[in-house]
Recover the amino acids of this structure.
């Protein structure tokens, strides 16, 4: 019975121990919101560099190419997880679009940005 008490104490102590910070010793880990904001900023940079020639990539404005949907309503047309996979594997759409593939980190950043600017579809 004593052995069970010792084991239970050690398990409880291990569960209550603070996990090491991914930022390193003596540094606070970034807050999840800060990580999301940084990821969305990276996604905005990708959108502006790779997509803005055709799509409206911000919170207002019309797309330069009428068939290219504005990014602010894109997730009302496509599920984020499906769009992310298609960005990684090479997206296929009905309107003319350049042939490209994003790496998983770039696709994740672009989806984070899209999520941050979504508005209801008109």
């Amino acid at each position: 019975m004593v052995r069970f008490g010792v084991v239970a104490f050690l398990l409880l102590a291990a569960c209550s121990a603070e996990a090491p910070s991914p930022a390193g010793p003596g540094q606070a880990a970034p807050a999840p919101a800060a990580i999301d904001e940084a990821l969305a900023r990276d996604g905005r940079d990708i959108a502006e560099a790779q997509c803005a020639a055709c799509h409206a990539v911000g919170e207002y404005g019309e797309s330069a190419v009428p068939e290219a949907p504005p990014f602010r309503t894109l997730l009302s047309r496509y599920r984020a997880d499906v769009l992310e996979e298609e960005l990684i594997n090479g997206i296929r759409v009905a309107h003319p679009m350049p042939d490209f593939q994003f790496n998983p980190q770039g696709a994740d950043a672009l989806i984070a940005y899209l999520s941050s600017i979504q508005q209801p579809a008109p």
